[in-house]
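Molecular record:
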Amino acid sequence: MKKLSARRRHPLAALVVLLLALACTGGLYAAFAPAGKAQADETAQSLAIDEGKKLYAVGCASCHGTGGQGTSDGPSLAGVGAAAVDFQVGTGRMPAQQPGAQVPKKKVIYSQAEIDQLASYIASLGAGPSVPSEEKYGPEGADIAKGGELFRTNCAQCHNFTGKGGALTHGKYAPTLEDVDPKHIYEAMQTGPQNMPSFPDTTLSEQNKKDIIAYLDAVNGDETVDPGGLSLGGLGPVSEGLFGWIFGLGACIAVAVWVAARTAKAKKS
């Protein structure tokens, strides 16, 4: 009896039982916890799509169609992605107040939660650019000098070299980029709203977009060094040359007229 009792009380028995218990607990967690979390995420996403569909029916369907297929008053939204919704609705451009050459930025009428729901519904209509995370458009790791080079090559023709904006044709214009949320600038490059071409990652990489946003923040930020004098709108050589011709040449003509008048008066005397 003593030998049997000693075998049952082997010092490794408790350790083996503990290891078996831990293995079972870990196995059960691995089997059920991820599935539960995934199911919860799927449920939340489904609810967001349902709520977004309700908002869409009230504020968007009259122009874009009941299923986002588009009408004569608005384009199809299939495949535009959540980023397009976050940009257009998040800047107040949509819903549009009235038709025109270009839809301007205005006061936002939806909360961010409602915008997210609308974006979820539109994203369900077809794959498209998603809303970027802050890591993609934040200043960490950005190259401002490279961003300036990229901006002058790809964007300055319309927005001018400091992002002040500029006129286009037929009543259209490139809006100013001052005080624009970096997320919305990134989304605009992704989706190409209105007259702007899109710049997918195959054209401008995520790092390129980050660099451009950092450059715009540098030239339009509160800490920008003002060199003094008249900025002339920051439009560059066009406005500066026009200023020189009008005032510089005008001053030369005025001086010439004055000298001629003084000379004629002196001769008569």
Summary: The two ends are 149 Å apart (CA to CA). The chain has a mean pLDDT of 84.
